[in-house]
Give the backbone structure.
Amino acid sequence: MNDEQIQTQLAQENLKLASFNKRAIAFMLDDMIISLIFAVIFWDKFKTLLDPEDLVLFINSLFVYILLVKTIYQTVFIAMYGQTLGKMVMKIRVINREYFDQPSYLEALQRGIVRALSEVVFYVGFVWANFTPLRQTWHDKAAKTLVVDV
C-alpha cells in the first residue's frame, strides 16, 4: 500500500496518527525509565564519583549497555503490548502499517535496533518523521510501522 492508501485505510479504521508532541513526550518518559534503572543499578558507583568529569566518563562507559537495554525494552514492550510505558501514558501505540495490528517480535526488534542507531546519529531519524506524510521515523520505516492514538 502507498501512503495515500494507508491514510485512507487509517480513516476507515477510525485511527489517527500520533502527534510529534505525544511521541516526543513518550520518548522522554521511556528515557527517564531507562535512566532510573541504570541509576538504581549503579547507585553505589554514582555516590563515589565526586567530580562531574568522572561522572560523564562513567556514563559514557555504559553507552553500549544503555543502547542494548533500550533496544530490549523497546522490543519487548512493542512486541508484547504495542506500547512502551511512555506510550501507554501518552495513549499512543505502534501498529504494523500493512495489517494495523501490533508488530511481531521480529518487526519490534528491527524497530528497536534502528531506533537505537537513530539516537546515535543525533536523532536525525526521529526528526525525519516531521517530513513524511505518515509521520514515520527511520525505525518506523524500517519495521513498516505507524504510531497512532489509542
